[in-house]
Structures are given as structure tokens and as C-alpha cells.
Amino acid sequence: MLLAIETSCDETSVAIVDINRFSDRSAKPAEFLKADLISSQTDLHVAYGGVVPELAAREHLQNLPILIDQAFQSAGCRPDDLSAVAVTRGPGLNGCLLVGLTFAKSFALARNLPLLALNHLEGHLFASDLLEIRPEPIYPALLLLVSGGHTELVLIKSFREYELVARTKDDAVGEAFDKSATLLGLPYPGGPQLAALAARGDRARFPFPVGMPEDDSAFSFSGVKTAVRRRVDRLGDELRDPQTLCDVSAGIETALVEALLLKLRKAVSHHRPRAVHLSGGVAANTHLQERLRALLRQKGIAFFVPPSRWCTDNAAMIGVLGARILLHNALSFREWHERPLPKADLGPNVPFDVGAMPRWPLA
Ligand code: KG4
Ligand code: ZN
Q1: Segment 101-133, tens digit of pLDDT
Q2: What count of other Cβ atoms lies within 10 Å of the Cβ of residue 65?
Q3: By alpha-carbon position, which residue is closest to atom 19 of ligand 1?
Q4: Measuring from atom 3 of ligand 1, which residue has the nearest CA?
Q5: Residue 11: pLDDT above 80?
Q6: Ligand 1 atom at minimal distance to the Cα of residue 196
Q7: Strand blocks (E) in 302-363
Q8: Is the pTM of this model over 0.85?
Q9: In angstroms, what is the span from residue 157 Cα to ligand 2's centroid?
Q10: Pocket of ligand 1 (CB under 6 A)
Q11: Lowest model confidence (mean pLDDT) among 212-216, 249-253, 315-319
Q12: 282-303 b/e with 16+ CB inside 10 Å = b?
């Protein structure tokens, strides 16, 4: 059993993965994911219109031990059954990361377990292992990672070998969704609500600029925000009309999604990937999924997007990433118990002096 902990932003999350079950590629998440708990702090931060790092860290400190207890109960196992601990090392909010990392280190040290200190963004990628039918590893692949803190297009050359293709030079796309939603008067985090309104809107009535820096290696989303502010000012009371609100939302969503597709299309013709993975919180966006699916189907490229529960932040994705690393290192469940391997065999993530990495690009 592997215990996984995620506290990089405002979700406290704990999961327990049965590594042995997971090693069978046909096993479903319900079979290998023994515990899967996510405690969101959204209600706490909503009054501030965004995540307050100090408050988030304090919440993690209080919630984490409770969630750990609940995870063992729900998995029907005990700390003695664990073989390893995996935790998010970064990127994320420093104080938040420190809570999870310090807890994981202490736990692993106390129980003499190996510690895997992992990259949150890589976790988002491996969330596709939580699909009912798990994708075969095919390379090269492209990863479009879109969340509230990140917007990156990454080339996956082989298992855990990444090369940056493009990243945002200003706001993340999730941030652009959330800030636009705030301008429309929707409560934080407004991304999903804006998307729900957009589904009922006319995408052509209010066109917004598609972020299109000259540079193929950069996304830009700050222009949309300015255009939304101007449009909201110009509309004034007209925005109270429900259909107008839906139409503005649809215009915003369309501009944000098209900006992502523009770069992806170029990267597809340049790198000729055999698969595209979509992940991160914004991957839950249905319009983005539909546009991508249509584009990739036409080109005969496989497309993977995790189930929506695991698109946003969660520990299950950190757990399956940890399990994948252990299995890749050819450690069977039995070997673990009979012959704990030298720490060096687990790569650079093991030493206990490992620190949090608030900034840590995947590539
Ligand atoms: O991955 P995540 O949970 O946290 C970060 O690591 O940032 O992503 C959260 C982001 C928020 O900005 C939220 O508004 C956005 O994902 N999001 C969406 C949707 N669902 C979540 N944005 C657009 N459409 C959605 N359906
Ligand atoms: Zn995330």
C-alpha cells in the first residue's frame, strides 16, 4: 500500500493505492484506489475572492491528520500495511507544501518507509491512469496542462522525460477563467460557473481577443481580462439579462479555448505526437474537451483526459504517479517487504533533507 498526500494549494487530499492491484493494467480505480479523500477549502477562501496562502496552510495543518485517519478507515488498512509514502513537493504555495511535506517526512521517518517527493504537474499528467480503461504508454505524446496556476504544453519523449514546448508568459488559463468570472460578478472560483453559463450562450455575439503572442513558445491570457473589463463596463445593466450573461461567458470561453488550440495545433504538426493528454483543473472544461477531441480524432491521434473528479487537485494522482515510479523501478510488492532497497535506487527524491519546490516546471 502506498499513502499519498497532496497539499499544494487549497485542497487537502489523501489517497491510498494498492500497488499490487495497480500493477495489473486491467485493474479499475475502484479496485486499486483504496482511499480517495479530498477536502476543499473553497468555502473558507470565497470571502477573499482567492486563496489566502497563510489560511490555506493552517487549514492543511488541522485537516491532514483527520484525513489520514479517515483514509486508513476507508481503506481498511493500518500504517503497518504501508510500503511507501508519496507527497507533492511542488510546485505550489510554499506554506501549504511545507505542511504536507513535513507530515510525509515525519511519517516516513517514524515508520521507516521510503519517501517519494513528487511534482504536482507530473501528478496531473498521471491522473489519466485513473480512467476506467488505462491508456497504454505511447510516445511521443503532448501534454496540455491547464490549471489555476499553470498553463504549459509539454512534449513527453518517453516515461518521465519531458521537454517544454510552450508556457504562459502572464496569467494561467484557469486564472483567466476565474478573473473573468469575477468581473462578471460570479463568486470565486468562477471558472466552472462561467463554463456552465457559456454552454447556454451564443459564442459569436461577443468576440474576445485570442491570446496570440508571436512566440510559439508562449501563451498569453492577460489581454482577455482587459477586454472583459471593457465589455462589462460598456454593457452596464444589460449584463443583468441572463441571456446576455451567457453570451458574454460563451465569448470568453471561446477565446480562452481557441488560444490553447492554436498552440496545440502548431505543436501537433511540429512534433507529430501519437497521443495528447489534457490535464489540470481546466481539463474539466467540456468545451475544451470537445474541441480537442474533434481536432485529434480527425488527425488520428489518441486523446486522454482524466475523469473530472481527478482533473482538479487530488492525492490519487500523486498516488498513481508514485506507484508507477515504484513499478517502473521493477520493485514488486514482495521485494519491497523482503529486501528494502538502497535509497539510491529510488532516484533523487528520497533524501530527508528534501525541501519544498514552490516553482518546479515539469520539463
Ligand atoms: O488543478 P486545479 O484544481 O488547481 C491548480 O493547481 O491550479 O485547477 C483549478 C482551476 C481553477 O482556476 C478553476 O476555475 C478551473 O481550474 N476550472 C475550470 C473548470 N473547472 C475547474 N475552468 C473552466 N471550466 C471548468 N469546467
Ligand atoms: Zn493542480
Answers
A1: 999 988 988 888 888 999 999 999 999 999 999
A2: 11
A3: 192
A4: 312
A5: yes
A6: 26
A7: 302-304
A8: yes
A9: 22
A10: 9, 147-149, 174, 177-178, 189, 191-192, 195, 280-282, 284-285, 312-313
A11: 212-216
A12: bbbbebbbebbeebbeeeebeb
